[in-house]
Every structure is written in structure tokens, then in C-alpha cells.
Amino acid sequence: MTLTRLPGPLAGQEAQLTNYRLEGPAHQLFMHPFPRRVRAEFAGETVLDTRDAVLLHETGILPQLYVPEADLRADLIEKSELHTYCPFKGEASYYSVRVGDKLERDAVWYYPNPKESAPWLKGYVAVYQTRMDRWLDEDEEVLGHLPDPFHRVDIRATSARVRVLAGDTVLADSTHALLLSETGLPNRYYLPAADISAELVRSDTRTACPYKGRSTYWTAKLADREITDVAWSYEEPLPESARIAGHRSFLHDDLTVEVG
Fold this sequence. Notes:
CATH architecture of the largest domain: Beta Complex
Helix content: under 10%
Distance between the termini: 28 Å
């Protein structure tokens, strides 16, 4: 399970159906090693390169990567005037990243004197992922964010009949769907393209998932209207989600998905 989403223990809400209670502060921190090499690139330069990263899990927040400050390129950073305060970690100081005439202000933060309850943060820095041009997990580009080792995706064949309707119009009808269960999210049904009767046209929307890959979104062209981004697919999914290639999943306020 993802630790910071229900039913994970750091979700910030009490999980049901347990015979234990976690003792300690309401806002909890848990840090552990990230087991692979991580690099971040900006303006053609490698800003950090580490084999000693850690993930900090914090109540209700996605895990954050921290790296030893020694693994950050000292010649590419400059001290910032910005300081912020976290009641759980302490006062944060910041660095900006500069490569030639390209500058990302306050892109790196760290806790020079962390709270007594989190002394293990000392000597580590964190980098805003979106401020860098590219991240690498070993030699593979990171999609979305670094994968959480407590998050998983399971894909199963199902004989359930799945129908997708827009009012009285049937967009898809399948008994060969795949059921995708992903930590912290509702189940999604992925239908073979052959079982989709509606005309679908690629839209300009794209997203990235660290567990499934880069998505393509589809607009449905009906006789009387269009429904934008009515479905999505992973044309070249990551190996762990390879089974959903050639399938599409539907979700939209104008749709009804019937499972029987």
C-alpha cells in the first residue's frame, strides 16, 4: 500500500478494520533508502547524481526524494534569501540553480538545523522535481514522479460485462475487459479497442504515470456532439503495465459505466 494514502498508516486518517493504533504525533515522518541511482538534469548539466537517496514519507503527502548535499553540484547552486518554516521539520533554507543564463530560483531546500524529532534530515537536500528538465531512475527517464516502492498496480482479466453509455448511446460494450487496481485509486476497466463502437479521435491532452507510462486521451464524436477527453490509453505502457496496451479506459461526467 502507499503509506500516505488510505488505508496506509500515514494517510492522516484512522484506517478502519485494524487491531492496532499508531502511537505518536498526528503528523508523522518516515524516511528510508531509495535503492537506485538518481540523476537530475537542468540546461544540459547534471545537477545531482546519487546512489544514496532517501524517500521521506510524510502524513498525507506524496513521498519526497532527499539526497546527500555532497551529491549536489556545488558549482551550479547559489544560496537564496528565502527561508520557510515547517512545524514538523524545522526552518528550511534554499538554493537556486544556475546554468549559464538559466536560473531556477529556490529550486532546492534543506534543513540546516532540523527539529530534534527528525535529526536524520541534516545533511540532505530536496529538489523540486518540476524545476528540473529531466530526471533519471538508473538509466530510465522518470515519468510524473519517482515511483513509490509501496505503490502497486495489478491488472486482471475479467469476464464482467462492461458497457459505456452517453445517455442512451452505447460507446463500448465488452466482456473482455481488463480490471486495473492501483493503490489508493478506484478500480478502472480497460476495454479492447475492438469493443469500442464510438468514433474516438486523439485529443491534445497528455499525462504521465510512473507506473503505467505516457497516456493518450481521446474525444468521442457522437451524432449530436463531442465529448472531449472521454477516454485514455497507454499506447506504449511501461513493462509492468504492458497488458493494457491496445485498451482504453473511460471516465467522464457525461458517461455511465455499467458493470454486470
